[in-house]
Amino acid sequence: MVSVLKESKTEPLDIVSFLFIWIIYLVSNEKDNATTYNLLRVVIVVSLTAVVILRRRIIFYKNIVNILLFLVWGALSLTWSVSTPRIDVIKNLFFNYIILFLFIQYLGDTINRIKICIVAFASAGVLLVAKILTTTNIRTLTTRLFLEGFNINDVGLALVFSGICFSYLYEVTKKKYCFILSIVCMGTSLLSGSKKILIDIVVFLILTAFWNKRFSIKYLVRSFILFFASITLLYIIFNNAYFYAIIGKRTQEFIEAFLGKTTYNASDIIRSNLVEFGIELFKQHPIKGVGIANYELLNIYGIYSHSNYIEMLANVGIIGFILFYLPYVDSIKHLFGSKQLKSPEIKLAIITTIIFIVSDFFMVTYYDLPKIVIFNFVYIILTNTNENNKWRLNW
Questions:
Q1: Within-domain flag for 395
Q2: Residue 6: exposed, middle, or buried by beta-carbon count in 10 A (0-12, 13-18, 19+)?
Q3: Alpha-carbon gap, residue 289 to 326, rounded angstroms
Q4: What are 2-36's pLDDT values in tens digits?
């Protein structure tokens, strides 16, 4: 990690990126801390604004234009909200996207700051793991109460991304501790007990295996060792009541769901009903939707849909859906058109983008600051080399 920072020519101002990423990891993933989080967001805005002023340059990427159009459409949706106009949500969205805009300005258009932020995301994962292990009751490890004070899915996804960043650092530095810390972050994310996070990790492992595919004897030996180690680990998990309660049961449910043999519990039934209700709302209001964040006010459970795709279609209609997901389409276009597929940075960005596309089937991401920062960060990595994708304003 230190070697990457030295190579990236780290400046004193770069401490702002570390503070920003550490804050969104350590504070935004907690429940019931709105006052502290809002205060820290103000500090972030002031700090990043100072960096932009000192650098005397603003850069506009295509995703910034798409974000602005989505925010305008979301604000307009307040005028036709079926239920209560969610002015509070729009305010929060605008504030989060102002932070995102300033963060993109910090990144600029050089690979050096991208590498610095990868180190920051990785180190933030270690800090989050330390916080979880020191502030939670270890006796509740086998229950959903273990991460009761945290937003479980947010914590899991953040740790998965930190694991991906450590995987990148291991690839470019060959330092074994980076590989170990990648496993620690991924492993801790599993303690959330979330099947969504388990799916994200499976996607990561499949994509990584595909990317690193080699047919040498050394590769085959490692593959066999990994295979037998995995079998041994699964045997321990499924034959030990303690480990089975933590992750074995979730793994079994995931495999059964994949094979079409699952038995649905109450939570699965509720989520299925939420998806059906969201589709019905979209059919009734296909163009404009029911108004930003109105979905959770209209369903009988009073909660969000657990799917960003359904949430977007129901709340802001097909127009808002297209505006929000245009950067995803742009990312996929760059994914297939990139001439730097062997670049470790491009590999990180593509794997993360695919994980986000999968995650949005099971998670709501459009108003969560860590998620929008991570996605737009990897978007910049994918599109950074395309001069047609950005405009500069100097003064």
A1: no
A2: exposed
A3: 18
A4: 666 666 666 667 787 788 888 888 876 665 566 67
